[in-house]
Predict the structure.
Amino acid sequence: MPSRPIKSCNKYVLSYKDSSNKTHEVGFYARDAYDCLMLAREFNSYVHENPGSVIRIQQKF
């Protein structure tokens, strides 16, 4: 992802469930929901190894 000023990005919250069925939320500044997912996969090893664990990506206003 090319470098952009944070003003051009929105805040997203990605929710996923771990192997114990516990819900976790992580926040990212991204251009869209797909970029949020790609960032989560890059910085969260569980999401990287278990992309099907993502249950929601929500933009925060």
Observations:
- The beta strands are 10-17, 23-30, 54-60.
- The helical segments are 33-43, 45-49.
- Residues 12 and 59 are 4 Å apart (CA to CA).
- The mean pLDDT is 93.
